[in-house]
């Protein structure tokens, strides 16, 4: 997809600050330092729009980025960083849980994992959490340029097995350095949004059909 506009909109600390324009939202989750900011910058063609922190765990809000006046990327706080205070982690947990369970505009989650390592316990817990809630998930294996292409299949197989990935969930190898996976990820995003739009239209059409009267049904 051609990105013609991208902008940072708001760092939200709760539902009252979430945008109200009804655009599709795609949440990005992953461990601190997994490369969420780098992926966002590459996907939006904006160097430095999503700031890359030198202090892992610094993001403590839901950061909204609007693309082509069509969708939002919602950047979640990185999880799994030991030096973040327990009380802050608990606040993140409540905010994230509320968003994932209640946000109507959320279409699916992009979960980032480092292709070089098996998913951590936190990665597995996040994936399972999304499945329990019923949220579709795209797994993006970041830092694809850090290992030989010939080892991608082996490493993605480990990721699939460790997460116990469900049918219908996709895994994409990505590199913010080379752009590997960028077009594939945009293709997956657009495919899922089209399906979401079609489902909404079908549901609307079904709801508009009047129920048959008892005499008609006889």
Please give a structural write-up.
The chain is α/β, with parallel strands linked by helices. The protein has a single domain (6-197), classed as 3-Layer(aba) Sandwich (Rossmann fold), CATH 3.40.50.300. It is 38% helix and 20% strand. The protein is built from six helices and seven strands. It has helices at 36-44, 86-102, 121-133, 152-163, 182-208, 214-217; strands spanning 6-12, 24-30, 62-67, 71-75, 106-114, 137-142, 170-173. The chain has a seven-stranded mixed sheet with strand order 1-3-4-2-5-6-7, with helices on both faces. β6, α4 and β7 (170-173) form a beta-alpha-beta unit. The longest helix is centred in the last third of the chain and has 27 residues, at 182-208. It is globular. The termini are far apart. The model is unreliable at 53-57 and 212-218 (pLDDT under 50).
Short description:
The chain is an alpha/beta fold. Helices cover 38% and strands 20% of the residues.
What are the salient characteristics of this protein?
218 residues; alpha/beta; Rossmann fold; 38% helix
């Amino acid at each position: 997809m051609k990105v013609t506009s991208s902008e940072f909109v708001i760092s939200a600390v709760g539902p009252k600050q979430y945008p109200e324009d009804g655009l599709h939202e795609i949440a990005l989750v992953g461990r601190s330092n997994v490369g969420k900011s780098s992926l966002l910058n590459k996907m939006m063609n904006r160097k430095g729009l999503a700031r890359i922190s030198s202090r892992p765990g610094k993001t403590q809000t839901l950061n909204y980025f609007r693309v082509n006046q069509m969708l939002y990327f919602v950047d979640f706080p990185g999880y799994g960083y030991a030096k973040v205070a327990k009380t802050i982690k608990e606040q993140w947990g409540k905010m994230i849980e509320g968003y994932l369970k209640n946000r109507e505009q959320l279409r699916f989650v992009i979960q980032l994992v480092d292709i070089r390592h098996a998913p951590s316990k936190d990665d597995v817990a996040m994936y399972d959490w999304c499945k329990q809630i019923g949220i579709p998930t795209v797994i993006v294996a970041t830092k694809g340029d850090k290992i030989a292409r010939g080892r991608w299949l082996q490493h993605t197989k480990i990721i699939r097995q460790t997460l116990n990935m469900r049918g219908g969930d996709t895994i994409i190898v990505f590199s913010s350095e080379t752009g590997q996976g960028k077009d594939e990820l945009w293709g997956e995003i657009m495919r899922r949004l089209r399906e979401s739009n079609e489902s909404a239209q079908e549901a609307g059409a079904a709801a508009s059909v009047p129920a048959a009267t008892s005499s008609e049904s006889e």
